[in-house]
Write a structure and sequence with these properties.
The chain is α+β, with helices and mostly antiparallel strands. About 20% of the residues lie in helices and about 30% in strands. A six-stranded antiparallel beta sheet has the order 1-2-3-4-5-6, covered by helices on one side. Strands 7-8-9 form a three-stranded antiparallel beta sheet, with no helix packed on it.
Length: about 200
């Protein structure tokens, strides 16, 4: 019996996850990765105890996307992205949740060989900041002077080939952080077959 295209794609992401090298999540071996997606197939809670004795769970699994909570402080996303050459690549986003989320984006071919290159443009901090009408120019200037220690977070979309980029700033007081939250916006970039733009 032939699989439909969507089922074949889902199998493809399922297999991509299972085949991911252990070195990319040393506390989650192939057996545990397989167990997780088997639980998804059985429509039960997709959660295992990893080799660090912590919980790992699948949050979302689609035809070309998976989001996994590796530990309480680490999340992993994989997305299959089409290339202009006609094949596809694996885009991985690993996010670390500290005082401010920070992400690392890497890309691999379908055999899990790392692909060198810059896939996300360097965006100026001004791309993420918009002054609220009710904020004084003086307060806005004060906050802008505090933005040297910045971290970037990425979120792949399960629905399309886009990447949401957000920024956070370290070393802020609680009051400054609350005011900063009112300034921050997100930027959405779309995959063009080669890079996010």
């Amino acid at each position: 019996m032939m699989l439909s295209a969507s089922m074949a794609q889902a199998q493809s992401m399922r297999q991509t996850w299972i085949d991911m090298p252990d070195s990319l999540a040393v506390f989650l071996n192939k057996s545990l990765r397989t167990e997780l997606v088997d639980y998804v197939d059985m429509k039960v809670t997709a959660e295992v105890t990893n080799l660090l004795k912590e919980k790992t769970s699948i949050d979302t699994l689609t035809a070309d996307y998976i989001r996994v909570k590796l530990t309480a402080a680490t999340e992993l996303e994989l997305k299959l992205l089409p290339r202009k050459a006609g094949d596809s690549i694996i885009c991985m986003v690993r996010t670390y949740y500290g005082p401010v989320p920070q992400s690392v984006l890497t890309c691999y071919d379908r055999e899990w060989h790392s692909i060198e290159g810059t896939f996300v443009p360097q965006l100026p901090k001004e791309s993420f900041i918009k002054k609220p009408a009710e904020m004084s120019e003086e307060r806005f200037s004060d906050l802008m002077a505090m933005t040297d220690w910045q971290l970037t977070a990425f979120r792949l979309s399960p629905d399309d080939a886009s990447l949401t980029v957000s920024m956070g700033f370290l070393q802020l007081t609680k009051e400054d952080q609350e005011d900063f939250d009112a300034l921050l916006t997100q930027t959405k970039l779309n995959w063009n077959g080669e890079v996010f733009k």
